[in-house]
Design brief:
It is built from 6 helices and 20 strands. The chain has 362 residues and is mainly β. It is flat and about 70 Å long.
């Protein structure tokens, strides 16, 4: 499933105080004018002008009090100007004065879709289907698949299934297989449990004994007995636009994993971090990702990286163990926040990000 094409909805999130205080620095060699191309995002366009493109709302002079911001479309010509000492991007002047708005009258394509903030195709599945359970107790109370009368072990699209639980006839539900249990690597605290999306069902009829007959309408994987059944979010409730902003001050966290299971992630890849609602973070918050400093073994001035040191040096020179400073290598914007975990989209990266990398304020 895909997000609706009219996904550029209202901007309602204000910029944090730290973001407002940060100066807008133009990128060296920036253009004075730019023609919007098909496939552009506001992030891409801002990256043509700003050294820090995550401050794009100020470049566009977006007022978070306005429910419907001005759209820009492929073919629009944008012009850079200065207002009160800060750069602004907008349309050409009218009556000798610069008009700072992005709602042109002439478009080469009448039914063109407005340019989105970020490449939403990268996070659409996480907004619509991917899910994390708070704990195992939450999973126990959910409706679950009983099976079907054909006795299929793995059930596929078109099958009639029976679910333990009272579902609403006519409503679509997601089917999830309980996956990895995430625990804090230091304290062992349970952070949440992965819920792997396997398909969708449509509730057909409520039956006796707290059961519902459903039709399996879509498969990503085979559906098995015991898989959990969860209401899908309403399309109109999905966040379509994220206004990147400085995150509140948090204690350092870390990258739990890359949902893609890749060894390293770059720009516009998704990461899961161990910070959530209880840390006062919210969608749109931007954080630094730092590569851990290399561990050293210092043997009276004879220095080696710990992973290359001999077993003898590791054992007898542990007092000489030291670590180089960590380095910021990426910035991540949170887009789906749970109690103790959050999904984030890497906005900038100068090297691959791995699990275990530190997440902190910049």
């Amino acid at each position: 499933m895909y997000l609706k094409q009219t996904i550029f909805a209202c901007l309602a999130v204000t910029l944090a105080g730290g973001a407002l205080a940060a100066p807008l620095t133009l990128k060296a060699g920036h253009p004075d004018n730019y023609v919007v191309q098909k496939g552009d995002t506001l992030w891409d366009i801002s990256g043509q002008f700003l050294a820090e493109p995550w401050l794009w709302p100020r470049l566009w002079n977006i007022n978070p009090q306005i429910a419907n911001p001005h759209w820009i479309y492929p073919g629009d010509v944008l012009q850079l100007s200065w207002v009160n000492g800060e750069p602004r991007l907008g349309k050409a002047s009218q009556g000798g004065k610069q008009v700072i708005h992005l709602s042109p009258k002439n478009r080469y394509e009448n039914k063109a879709n407005p340019v989105p903030t970020l490449p939403l195709s990268e996070i659409g599945p996480f907004l619509q289907t991917d899910h994390i359970l708070a704990d195992s107790q939450q999973a126990k109370g959910m409706p679950y698949v009983l099976g079907n009368n054909e006795r299929h072990v793995g059930m596929l699209e078109g099958d009639t299934l029976y679910v333990h639980g009272s579902l609403t006839p006519g409503q679509d539900y997601g089917v999830y297989h309980p996956g990895v249990i995430y625990k804090d690597k230091k304290t062992g605290e349970m952070l949440g449990q992965e819920a792997v999306f396997v398909g969708t069902v449509r509730a057909e009829e409520r039956l006796a004994n707290n059961r519902t007959r459903v039709t399996l309408t879509h498969n990503r994987r085979e559906v098995y007995q015991g898989d959990k059944v969860i209401p899908l979010p309403a399309q109109e409730s999905l966040s379509a636009v994220f206004m990147p902003k400085a995150a509140p001050v948090i204690s350092p966290g870390y990258v739990v994993e890359l949902p893609s299971k890749a060894r390293g992630g770059g720009k516009f890849d998704v990461v899961l971090i161990n910070k959530g609602l209880r840390d006062q973070v919210s969608p749109g918050d931007v954080l630094d990702i730092q590569r851990p400093g290399a561990e050293l073994v210092d043997r009276n001035g004879k220095v080696s990286y710990r992973e290359y040191a001999s077993v003898y040096d590791k054992a007898f020179y542990s007092a000489g163990k030291s670590t180089l400073p960590s380095e910021a290598v990426a910035r991540v914007m949170l887009f789906k926040v749970y109690d103790k975990l959050s999904y984030g989209l890497i906005l900038q990266s100068r090297e691959p990000v791995g699990s275990g990398y530190q997440v902190s304020n910049f």
